[in-house]
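User: I'm curious whether this sequence folds into something compact or stays loose and floppy. Could you predict its structure so I can see for myself?
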Amino acid sequence: MRICMLMLFALFMVACSSAPKYQYTLEPTPLKAESTQYAIESVEVNLILGHGARDGDTRFNTEAKITEVFTQALSEELQARGALADGATADADLNIVVDFVREYNTGGKALNTPKVSHKVIASRGEQELAVFGLESYTLDYGIYDQMKIAGFQRGSEEELADVKRLAQLMADDIVQMGR
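Assistant: Here's the prediction. I'll summarize afterward.
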């Protein structure tokens, strides 16, 4: 009995922890999963320097660079899924805000896993259609990346790889938005 309860609890926790919760503000929603075309109207990436940051340190990426790489990667991911359109032909516009907390390893000379929060708003004109987001999460890493983190070997290149992975995961969620 105890094992069954433990398994049910674990299953509940996994099911509730990772899926975005779409909030549709217009019912029935005109958004259709895997077929709606989106235009990226705005992207705001807020780089927040977490614990261990050193004043004046320029060895890591700027907020502008992270925004540029994220926007480009998201555009490419949506294009690859057939969900990117220009403003004139799009079914909905996307406004995206990402809070990217850069975490440093001890000493501030190498990076740890970033903490990320994001919010995506899909709208048509002035009408908001849907909203989703996730608060304070980290990306999953394989053993090689975990060893680089433990060995204080993560830098700017790995951070940009994180940003591209974030864009890929967000594109997956955007494409699934709708009913």
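Summary: The helical segments are 2-17, 63-80, 143-150, 156-176. Residues 20-176 form a domain with the Rossmann fold fold (CATH 3.40.50).
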